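quick one before i forget lol
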Amino acid sequence: MAIYRFRVSFEDYDDVERDIDIKSNQTFEDLHRAIHGSTGYKVEVSSSFYVSNDQWIKNEEIAFLPNQRKINNEVALMENSKLSSFIDDPHQKFYYIYNFERPFDFHVELIKIMLNEESGKSYPQISRTLGEAPKIAGSGIISAAEAVVSDDFDFLNEEDFQPEDPEDLEQMTDIGINTDQQLVNVDDEEKDEFMDEFSDNEGYDPDDLQKDDY
């Protein structure tokens, strides 16, 4: 039985890698679970491998917990897809997206093919680990090391600053509220108040401003 060694790396974290040895007749779901056995991320989330070329361009998809649209399109399922069925190159590449709700992107590359499994080993197996996987916290992602925030932005936390929600802005536009127009209206109102303040009598004629005083 041939053994594949895949190198798995985060697309956005160059210093984090995993080498995983796995049997050629095992499935993409086995590889999916092996990857996150090493990262500590939960595995029961919608994710996909994509057969890729050397430029990591995504082609055929192999999905785990696909949505209804993918099911209707009869996408290949990880649990039914053996690795050997998608290996056409000794350096085959797969683009891998973990958790479509809060995605991490990975590069998965076949780096070695061993003709025989080692006696006493169980597969899949992590053969090499480099770096600590970034941690997922709340609604975002932070690195394993504590994030350092500049003091220049402390006032945002003190004021409970909340960025504007793009969806809210879209809704405002949909109902006809235009922020630029609002600014124009405010300027017009201030101008009217200014004119009222300095126009004490009803007979005020703006043309009087043009007359000479001598």
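fyi The beta strands are 3-10, 17-23, 47-52, 58-64, 76-77, 93-98, 104-114, 125-130, 135-137, 140-142.
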